[in-house]
TrEMBL record:
Alphabetized UniProt keyword annotations: Flavoprotein, FMN, Oxidoreductase
Domain FMN hydroxy acid dehydrogenase span(s) in chain numbering: 1-357
Signal peptide residue numbers: none
GO molecular function: oxidoreductase activity
Keyword Transcription included in the entry's annotation: no
Name this protein carries in UniProt: Alpha-hydroxy acid oxidase
PROSITE patterns to which the protein is assigned, alphabetical: FMN_HYDROXY_ACID_DH_1, FMN_HYDROXY_ACID_DH_2
Amino acid sequence: MSIREVEQAAAAVLPRPVWDFVSGGSGAELTLAANRTALDRVRLVPRALRDVSACSTASTLLGREVSMPVATAPIGYHQLVHPEGELAAARAAKDAGVPFTVGTLSSFPLEQVAEVGATTWFQLYWLRDRALSYELVRRAEDAGCSALVLTVDVPWMGRRLRDVRNGFSLPPEVRAANFTVDPASEAHRAVPGASALASHTSTAFAPSLSWADVQELRSRTKLPLIVKGILDPEDAVRAAECGADAVVVSNHGGRQLDGAIPAVDALEAVCAAIDGRVEVLVDSGFRSGVDVLKALALGASGVLVGRPLLWGLAAGGEAGAREVLGLLAEELRDALGLAGCANVSEASRLRTGRGPLPLDRATKHDEGIPR
């Protein structure tokens, strides 16, 4: 009936270390909790006496038609939660009519994921091996991916204490399938009191990524370029100046800088600074169709949804992932109509406000989830 219930179902079946890896954040998880708090405080002002008898969630993202203004967010290693991993999730996205973002650290090769037939975006982590980064871009182009998502907020992985306490590492059957020589092999070496995945990313990812690299990447590919991990309006403007086609306002779901501003609180300023020059997407904490409507009202073109898709995959495989996307579509249509919007474009004209935190949200973000 809700994404919350899917989350509970996933928590009941996933091993504790995997659950913590998927659902945890960095540091004291202040930003992780703040993402949800900020969304809960956004209030919509519905319009009355509007004809919503033909209410539609259809929209476009990067010039392509989508069933709703939603895409899946890039998340690595889907096989941690289900054997069919990214393949099952991509099939669910195809059926739902939304783009699927396959990551650099996908547990199936990007070509195999693209063959599913969904509108596929490829997410790129900037690697120390620059030639390998460009090789991944070429492969994404050859595989028919329709956009490139450059993640810019991970010079190294944030200090995720749940993973550290669990001594989290990848099981042998899960690997970074986009590489002939698996650069994530270090991520399989369990060390008590350390995150093997953090060790891996510190050696594989390039903390030197700069605007010059974004410009160089723009010159090397004709794919639409999405810059993901933007919170400051000045960075959004710089991304547009470097040739980006879209930015994603994101704090990496609370998994990088703990204490960073909630993405939804950064959204309006970014949209104002961009002033329509490129599309503005947003992620980090979105869990319902009402959340999507809030993002649209605040100026976003669409929302990337991450953890809920993995929860659905964990709880019910491909059918579970499809159920999550179906719930979002149903909830969004309901929210649009009740707000007096016959379509997605009308949502951008809704007024918003900020209210107090509901009492049932004034507790730790994952209270009540079974362990």
